[in-house]
Amino acid sequence: MMWFPRASSRRQQSSTGAGGVEENRNGEKKKFLTLKNPGKIWKNLRQHNQNHAAEHEVDCGETLQEEQREERLEEISRTLILREEQLFSQDPRCEEAEDQLQRDLEALSLKIWMAIHNTFTPSSSSASSSEEMEVLKSAVVCIQQQEEQDRRWTGCPEDKVPVWRPQKCLNTHNRLLQSMVESRLMRAAEEDSGETDGLSSPLKREVCRVGRRVKEDLLTVQRSVMDCYPPKMDILNLYGGLYHQSFSTRLKSLEASGLETDDCSYLLFWINHCYPIEILKHEELEGKIKTACLGSLLQPDHLDRLEDQSLTHKEERVKQWLNSAFRKEEESWLSGKTPELIDQYCFSPLAIDVIQVIDGSLTELSSVVRDPLKAQRLTAHLELFLLSYKKSLEEFVKGKSSGNIRSVVKAQLVCEQQFRGYITGLTGSLSEQQRCRCLETLTALRDCGYRTLTGTVLIQMKVCFSQLWTAAWIDGSLPVVDSSLDSLYQHLMDLTDLKPACREVLLSDLHQDLVLKYVKRMMKTRTKSRKQQVGGAQRMIEDAGKINDFFKEGGCRDSLWLGEMLCSLAEILRLQDPGSVQLEMVSLARTFPDLSGAHMSALLSLKSGLSAADVRSIRRSAEENRLLGASTNQSPPFFSRVKVKWINNKINQMGLKP
Questions:
Q1: What band does 258 get if pLDDT is binned at 50, 70 and 90?
Q2: Cα 56 off chain centre by
Q3: Distant-in-sequence, close-in-space partners of 58: CB < 8 Å, separation ≥ 6
Q4: Which of 190, 277, 572, 629 is close enough to 590 for a disulfide, judged by CB 3.0 to 4.6 Å?
Q5: Residue 282 dihedral angles phi and psi, to the nearest 5°
Q6: Could you give phi then psi for residue 246, rounded to 5 degrees?
Q7: Which residues touch 397 (CB under 8 Å, ≥6 apart)?
C-alpha cells in the first residue's frame, strides 16, 4: 500500500520518493512509506516490513500477524480502522501504539496489493482459483473501507490526522493495474510461444501474441474478476481502457519503425478487424465495453497511410494475377487447342480463377480497410479485365481461320454466365455504375458468342420466313414453320457440348429472334381481305404452338410467353368488331409497355375493315388504359426491337395519327 502524507512542517519527504521521515515529540525520526512507482511496490513493501522486524521485537500475542492468517482482509482492515479511531481520539497518543498500527497497516497493504497482483495468476485447481477470487474480493472491500476512512479525515486539523492519511488506495489500485497490464503485454510480446510459429515474420508473431493476451485477460475479467468488484468501479471498462492504451502504444512503436507491405496488412488486420470484431465484440464482451470511448488503436492519419500502402500493393498483385490468367487463356485459343470437357461440356477455368482472385482480395481487404468504398479500387481492375476479355474474344472469332472457334466460344459462354452471377451478387464492393458497365460488357460478350453459334441459322430463318403471308401459307399448304424448325433442330445438334444452363439462355435468345423475324415479316405485309386476316390468324396460332413446343422440348422455359404474344396478335387480326379489337389492343399494351403507337398503327393497318376514326380511337384507348396496368406483371421488352418507322410515316401521311 502507498501512503501519501500531507505536507507540513513536521513531515518531510525524502527527495527520492521512496520513503519519508517524521519527527516525534522526542525529536526522534520514524519512517513511513511513500511509494510512487507501482512497479516497485512489492520490493519496497517487503523491505519495509523486514526493517520493522529487525528494529522491533513484538510479542506474537500483541501483533496482528497471527490474526491475519485466520481473518479475512476486510475484517483486518475494519479492526485497524477501529484502532485508528480509538488511538487518535486520545490525547496524548501512545507513540508505540501508533508505530505498531502503522506497521500493521503496512502488513495489510502488502496482502491487499498481492491479492490484486495475483488477479491473472493461473491456479492449479478450481478450488484454489475460487479461493484467490475470494481473497481478491476481500481486498477490494478493504480498498473501499480505506477510501471511506480517508474521507472521514478530510477537513480535520493537520496535526490531528494520521501521518498515513490519506492513503488514496483507489488511486494506487488503478496505477497498479496499469503497471500490471503493461507488464503482461510486455511479457507476451517477448515470450517465444509455439502457437505463433506459423506466422511469417517477427512482427506478426509479436502482434498476435499481444493481441491474444488482451483477449484472454479481458475474458478473464468478464468471467471471474468482475464479481470481485462493485458495479460502480466498472472494472471491465477500467481494464478495457488500460489494455487498449497499452496495446495502442505497442502498435504505434511498431508502426513508427517502418513496415514491410505484408506486415502492414497484418497490422491493419488486427487494428480494423481482430481487435474491434473478435475481441471487443466477442459474444461475452459485446455491449459491456464502452468501445465508443476507446477509439482506434492508431490515429486516423496513420491508418490512412497504412491502408493506402496495403491497398496499392494489393492492386498491383491483382493486376498481375488477372493479366497472367488471361494470357494463359488467350494463348490456348490461339494455339488451336480445344477447351477441356467437364461432364461432356466445354469448359474454361478462366472465370473461376479470376473470381477467386477478386473475391479473395476483397475478403482480405474487408478486414484491412475501414471504408468499404475503397474496395472499388480493386473492382475497377475487374471492369477493365472484362473489357479486354470481350475485345479479345471478338477479335478471335473474326479470324474464322481457327477450327476451335465454336468450342472456345461455348467455353466462354460458361465463363460469361459465371461472371454475371458473381457480379450480380456482389454487394458493397461495386458501385452501381461499375456493376452496370460490367453487365453491359458481359452482355456484349454473350452476344458475340450467340452470333458466332447461331449466325448461320438466323440467316436461314430469314429466308424461310419470307414465305409467310403468302397464299400457300395462309391456306396451310406451305408448312413454313415446320421446315424452319426441322432445319433449326439439325443445327442445334452441334450444341450438345454446350453447358445446359448456357444452352437454355442461347435457346431463349434464339426463340426471341425467331419470333421477332416472324412478327417483322407480319407487319411488313399489306392490307389483307377479311378472309385472309382470319386465315392468317389461324396459321399464326398454329405456328405459335409449334414454336413453343419446339423450344419447350429443348429445355427452354423462360421465353414461352412469346407464344401467348403471337396468339394476342393473331386475335387482333381475327376480330372484326372495332370494340373487340380495342379491348385486345388494350390488353396487349398493358402486357407489353414497349408497344408504341407506331406498332399499334402497323398492326391495325393490316385490317381492312377499320376506319381512320376507329384506328385513332383504338390507339387513344390503349394509350390511356395502359397506365392502369403499369403495376401488373409485365413481359420482357420485345416490340422495341421491331422497327416500324416506315409504316408510322405512312400512317401519318394517311391522316390516321390521333
A1: confident
A2: 68
A3: 100
A4: 629
A5: -60, 145
A6: -70, -40
A7: 405, 409, 448, 452
In this model, does residue 147 exceed pLDDT 70? Answer: yes
User: Of the candidates 657, 590, 649, 595, which has an alpha carbon nearest to the alpha carbon of residue 625?
Assistant: 590
Cα–Cα separations (whole angstroms), residue 355 to 79, 316, 321, 653: 73, 16, 11, 56
Give the pLDDT confidence of 416-437 residue by residue, as tens digits: 999 999 999 988 889 999 999 9
> How far, in Å, CA of 651 to CA of 227, rounded?
89
Which residues face 345 on adjacent strands?
342
Number of Cβ within a 10 Å radius of residue 393? 24
Return d(Cα 76, Cα 117) in angstroms, integer. Answer: 19
- Residue 607: phi and psi, rounded to 5, are -100, 125
User: HEC string of 301-330?
Assistant: HHHHHHHHHHHHHHHHHHHHHHHHHHHHHH
DSSP output for 380-438: HHHHHHHHHHHHHHHHHHHH---TTHHHHHHHHHHHHHHHHHHHHH--SSS-HHHHHHH
Q: Strand 345-347 relative to strand 11-13: parallel, antiparallel, unpaired?
A: unpaired
Instruction: Give the residue-averaged pLDDT of 518-528.
Output: 83
pLDDT at 276 over 80: yes
- Separation CA 535–CA 472 (nearest Å): 11
Q: What are phi and psi of 162, to 5 degrees?
A: -55, 145
Q: Which of 64-78, 123-137, 157-171, 196-210 has the lowest mean pLDDT?
A: 64-78
Q: How far is CA 270 from CA 79, 244, 259, 452, in A?
A: 49, 13, 14, 51
Which residues, listed in sequence order, are joined to residue 31 by a DSSP beta bridge?
21
- pLDDT tens, position by position, 29-81: 343 443 344 445 545 544 544 444 444 433 433 444 444 444 689 899 999 99
Q: Phi and psi of 576, rounded to 5°?
A: -115, -25
**104 in Cβ contact with 80 (< 8 Å):** yes
DSSP state at residue 607: B
